[in-house]
Amino acid sequence: MDDYSLLTISLSLLLSWLLYFLTVKILRWRVLPPGPWGLPVVGYLPWLDPEHPYLSFTNLARKFGPIYSIQMGRLSTIVITDPKLIKQAFNMDALTGRADLYLTHGIMKGYGLICSEGPRWREQRKFAATCLKNQGMAKSHPKREKMEALIVSGVNDTMMRITNDESSATSGVEFSHFLIHSIGNVMNVIIFGREYSYDDPTWKLLTHLAEEGVKLIGVAGPLNFLPFLRVIPKFRGSMDFIVNGLERTHEIYREITAEHTGEEDDVVGSFLREQRSRDDAKVAHSFSDDQLNFLAADLFGAGLDTTLATLRWFFTMMAVYPDKQEKVYTELSTVLGQSTKPCLEDSHRLPYLEAAVSESQRLRTVVPTGIPHGVNTDCQLGAYRLAKGTMVVPLLWAVHMDPQIWPQPDEYRPERFLDEDGNYRKLDALMPFQIGKRVCLGEELARMIIFLYASTILQKFKIVLPDDAIPEGKDPLEGVCGITFLPKYGRLIFKSRVN
Questions:
Q1: DSSP bridge pairs for 373
Q2: What's the rounded Cα separation, in Å, for the pair 371 and 333?
Q3: Spatial distance between the Cα atoms of 196 and 182, rounded to a whole number of angstroms
Q4: Would you say residue 179 lies in a domain?
Q5: pLDDT score recorded for residue 30
Q6: Contact, 207 vs 180, CB < 8 A?
Q7: What residue numbers bound the domain in which 168 lies?
Q8: Is 440 flagged in the annotation as binding?
Q9: Spatial CA neighbour of 102 closest among 441, 393, 365, 391
Q10: Block means of pLDDT (10 residues each) for the chain, length 499 residues?
Q11: Distances (CA, A) of 114 to 71, 98, 175, 297, 375
Q12: How open is the CA angle 179-181-183, to the nearest 5 degrees?
């Protein structure tokens, strides 16, 4: 390459940088919140910690304030860390969309619940909410007892596996495997009307694909913002696994669907009835076969992943903070004794347990960056104008670790959620299920599962960290971040409290 060509390329790059700089500067002067500068094409991506993006975002919030702008590859992004502003933003119709990420639009193609938007999202969310409620996922519903019995069956399965595993009381066990099986089967019954045995090869494949997929897909992953990177060998393997895993999962779902008549009460049966009804009426609808597969995957993944993460963190904290665990146990023993098994009606009688769960959800937010929304039409948020296509990130980690809201935020203190009389008090700044029009659809189901597992297991077992579980000098509450934030160290000892 001659000197003239090099000079031409250098000048082109310089002009591109100046144009980018001036464009962003003008936009910010007119409409955008303050924020850091980035580079052309990649924006601020090179400076984000790929393993702990939520910490990078939180550090920027300390510098630029509770709302700031940042360029994420090709996406203009707004990050919000003020809980009141998050609530205001996510209650706006203009912010019910999804950002144009490669995950939502390239891989998921806007299907399902998590990645859909517009008419499809509204129609499918209404259907899914009605379907889950009709199975008992509601505080007051005739089938609530049936749903409770299903969850209790899962709890009993987990208790049996803890008891039968000889290492559980000595060297400890990877407790997450038991939870994945039992909670996963709760979701299987709700969605597909079936359960799998622990060693079923199809079930093992499904859980493997789900676990690895969650690890590989992250909101801050560069592929989401720079899709052309998928051809680079470093990223190609991950992309192939995600895409092939998705197709294999859908193949299994199609086999299950083929066995349904459409008369079943599970999600698949209800979907097929709705699909046929719309087809017979010859009206346009979103109940396609592809939508069913993505919807089932979303309900299964959302129902399992975040609930699993919450319980894993909670039981880990019980082991790390034995004094708090003893307070939970004392409350359980006082209210229920040893022989009375907890039920959902007992939740309001166990305020310290509820506070301990809430504090674990605060201290280790299972979705640290929240689920980003997309602006579907130009709108005003406070003093700023948000353009259509902007991504909006509710930075829940920063909300939950804000010292102005939570004094000494790094400390595990369930008492934050108790009033002067020892009653549980709900605090608006805690948002484990997000907030607004796209609040987690399965929040009530998750609360049911978390309470029954937490209360039943702590009533019967004392949880201890194995001496060799944590490498010397490491934080026992260190996590690994994919879509969800999970404990890095999962082995726990369960000592029976029953003589």
A1: 392
A2: 38
A3: 10
A4: yes
A5: 47
A6: yes
A7: 31-496
A8: yes
A9: 391
A10: 56 60 50 90 90 94 96 94 97 94 84 94 96 90 93 97 92 93 97 96 93 67 75 78 91 97 95 96 95 96 92 98 98 93 96 98 96 94 93 97 97 97 96 95 95 97 92 90 88 90
A11: 23, 8, 28, 10, 15
A12: 60
Contact (Cβ atoms closer than 8 angstroms) between residue 68 and residue 33: yes
Residue with tokens 């077992």: 461
**Token pair for residue 133?**
């409620």
Question: Dihedral of CA 401/407/413/416: which sign?
Answer: negative
Residue with tokens 């000197």: 3
Q: How far apart are CA 447 and CA 433, in angstroms?
A: 10
Strand 485-487 versus strand 491-496 pairing type: unpaired
* The pair of three-digit structure tokens given for residue 448, joined into one six-digit string: 């049911």
Six token digits for residue 83: 């809980």
Q: Is residue 16 part of a domain?
A: no
Helix 233-258, helix 289-320: angle, nearest 10:
110
Q: Tokens 């890095």 identify what position? A: 488
Per-residue model confidence (pLDDT) at position 78: 97
In a domain, 3, yes or no: no
Rounded-to-integer distance, Cα 40 and Cα 38, Å: 7
- φ, ψ for residue 354 (rounded to 5)? -60, -40
For CA atoms 136, 439, 397, 77, the dihedral sign is positive
| CA separation for the pair 93, 116 (Å, rounded) | 14
The answer to whether residues 124 and 295 touch, using CB atoms and an 8 Å cutoff, is yes
- How many structural domains are present in the chain? 1
Tokens of 205: 């494949």
From the list 356, 361, 366, 365, the residue with the least C-alpha distance to 417 is 356
CATH code for the domain of 313: 1.10.630.10
**What's residue 15's pLDDT?**
65
What phi and psi, each to the nearest 5 degrees, are found at residue 308?
-60, -45
**Coil, strand or helix at 484:** coil
pTM, two decimals, is 0.91
Ordered alpha helix ranges (H), 170-321 = 176-192, 201-216, 222-225, 233-258, 267-281, 289-320
34 secondary structure, DSSP code: P
Q: How far is CA 445 from the centre of its chain?
A: 14
Predicted local confidence at residue 303, as pLDDT: 85
DSSP 92-127: SGGG-B----IIIIIISTT-TTTS--HHHHHHHHHH
The answer to whether residue 379 is domain-embedded is yes
